[in-house]
Specification:
Number of strands: 12
Shape: globular
Number of helices: 9
Number of domains: 2
Strand order of the largest sheet: 5-4-6-7-1-8-12-11-9-10
CATH architecture of the largest domain: 3-Layer(aba) Sandwich
Distance between the termini: 25 Å
Largest sheet: 10 strands, mixed
Structural class: alpha/beta
Order of helices and strands: EEHHEHEHEHEEEHHEHEHEE
Helix content: 25-40%
Strand content: 15-25%
Length: about 350
């Protein structure tokens, strides 16, 4: 989708807890093997001692609102995404985020789409800003805490370690910041069985396994021939999504104004199998891999990557950045933003 009304990310922020667990310490404690720790590609991850996902989302949001010069009361829309337990069993965390920020007139919305949820939340808010003149400002947040007994951050999945944290982005109809130029999306719903496997439908959370064990479902997916399908479909979707976003933005792949591209914060095996070869083949821009000190932030990778681009001042006015995201199900997206000044 090409955006013609200049929706802009006015501010974007990541909030991470101070406590860190290094891969080396996790190996010494018997939490993960040396080989599995190496496969995550992360040297350390942030660990929340007490704050829940929604609470970390609120902390990131307060920082983003302050940076963007926007009051919570001025928000028209709040989109919150998550992939794991939010601290309550039957409840709307999106409304909690809005409540804590004083966004009394905003419409809160919860989004779930596995690890692509932050990118889809951003897409949802941008489309609303593009289409609905009554929406002037929107907030997108993510927040997750991957803790026992329900989740084993080092061993619940292959080739990834899950870090705790919150992310937030403030969007407006125009103004300085990161202008959303194009946002291409694609999906392959037939791959949803990677995270379902052969399991039947359970009556309550964590019935199949506690902690969550995605390795089990992936083994069943592999046995059914699913990995061969994934290996064929995935790269096709990644390439077509990237090329569509570039075309909709009116950019050629080698345009010198494309400064950098970011990828999900996954282990090197997944990145090198699915994403990096295509990105390096198509683009001349620098490909940033940013998960070394955070691990995989669940649905927060996309916003955390944009926060890095913004906070490190990587773009000169007029330059572009590409944010590529993917998540189980499967869904992929490619966002292209341009830095604009007042």
């Amino acid at each position: 989708m090409r955006f013609g009304n200049n929706p802009t990310i006015r501010a974007v922020s990541t909030w991470l807890p101070d406590t860190r667990q290094t891969a080396e310490a996790a190996v010494r404690a018997g939490l993960v093997s040396e080989d599995d720790a190496r496969a995550t590609g992360a040297r350390e991850v942030p660990v929340s001692e007490d704050a829940s996902g929604p609470e970390m989302a609120v902390r990131a949001a307060r920082r983003a609102l302050a940076l963007g010069g926007v009051a919570g009361a001025d928000l028209d829309m709040v989109v919150h995404g998550w992939i794991y337990h939010q601290g309550q069993d039957f409840w709307s965390p999106a409304h909690y985020v809005a409540h804590q920020l004083g966004a009394v007139d905003a419409i809160p919305m919860g989004v779930q789409q596995m690890c692509h949820v932050g990118a889809m939340g951003l897409h949802t808010a941008a489309v609303r800003l593009e289409a609905d003149p009554s929406v002037r400002t929107a907030l997108v947040t993510t927040g997750d805490r991957f803790t026992a007994p329900g989740f084993d951050r080092w061993r619940s999945d292959y080739d990834a370690v899950f870090g705790d944290g919150g992310t937030a982005a403030v969007l407006a109809r125009s103004g300085p910041g990161l202008r959303i130029v194009s946002y291409a999306t694609s999906a392959a719903p037939e791959l949803e069985t990677m995270y379902r496997g052969d399991d039947g439908f359970s009556p309550a959370p964590l019935t199949h396994s506690a902690p969550i064990d995605a390795r089990r479902t992936k083994k069943a997916f592999l046995a059914s021939g699913g990995m061969a399908r994934f290996g064929e479909i995935g790269p096709q979707k990644v390439r077509s999504t990237l090329m569509t976003a570039l075309a909709e933005a009116g950019l050629t792949p080698h345009d010198p104004r494309i400064r950098c591209a970011t990828l999900s914060r996954l282990g090197p095996k997944t990145i090198e199998l699915l994403y990096l070869p295509i990105m390096e083949d198509v683009l001349k821009a620098e490909i940033l891999q940013l998960g070394g000190q955070t691990g995989h932030l669940g649905g927060g990778d996309a916003l955390a990557n944009l926060a890095h681009v913004w906070e490190e001042d990587l773009l000169a006015p007029g330059e572009y950045a590409i944010s590529f995201s993917g998540g189980g199900g499967f869904t992929w997206s490619c966002l292209i933003v341009q830095r604009v000044v007042a």
